[in-house]
User: Fold this.
Amino acid sequence: MPVIIPDSPEVNTMTPTITTTAPLMMPGEPVQNPSPTDAMEDAQPAIEVAGFDAWYGDYHALKDLNMIIPEKRITAFIGPSGCGKSTLLRWINRMNDLVPIARAAGTLKLDGQDLLAKSTDVVDLRRHVGMVFQKPNPFPKSIYDNVAFGPRLHMSMSRTELNNVVEQSLRSAALWDEVKYRLKSPALSLSGGQQQRLCIARAIAVGPSVLLMDEPCSALDPRSTAAIEDLMAQLRNDYTIAIVTHNMQQASRASDYSAFMFQGELIEFGDTEQVFTKPRNEQTQNYITGRFG
Assistant:
């Protein structure tokens, strides 16, 4: 990836990266003895997590995670609050650099690139790893300027090229037909569901390969939630998607693979249908059936 100089210095709070030989968990394998299988079908590895630990001060938030997130699939992270789901997503795009007491160690790679290396350009990384948050957070700008913000920052293009990027991004986010005649209207005038789709359009406008979604539907009504889930099903053809959700129905409907986490540990990872119908771990069974969490 090209080197881009950040507008402001990033805070480096990490311990040195440690290479580990711990086995990686592939979907469809039990935690006790993970090994590569054909469960990923024709999917290629996108994100590699090996011997990965993370802390907030003295609090050990993630403990020896080992897994592979498949390319161009939807992977759902489920588990009770505080189990480390969002922390993992925040390390994948290095948002935790902004937390002075946060540090991490182990292997975290995107397409073979060491994301924890000090040489990693964090601004450029966030171009390749888009993030959609729990609540829609459009900029206080027009609909057009929200989507054009990233391309203007990272790319050099003509007005015509920028117009095309904005239109294509809004089309990809299933929003174009609803806003094409009011692109100069304030983004905050949109409904909550439209704002969330606008944030997705803003994320994909810079051409990422990965979309991270942290509870993207928790603030939306059922109709808007269904629209986001339909959109994710379309986007999975072009992007690797990792979603954090507390909604078990959403995880079972929308994802290809599911990872159950508890107290910072990865308990089970596999094909979503297998995890929800024939979990290999009793803790997983108890969680998805509502016995705790």
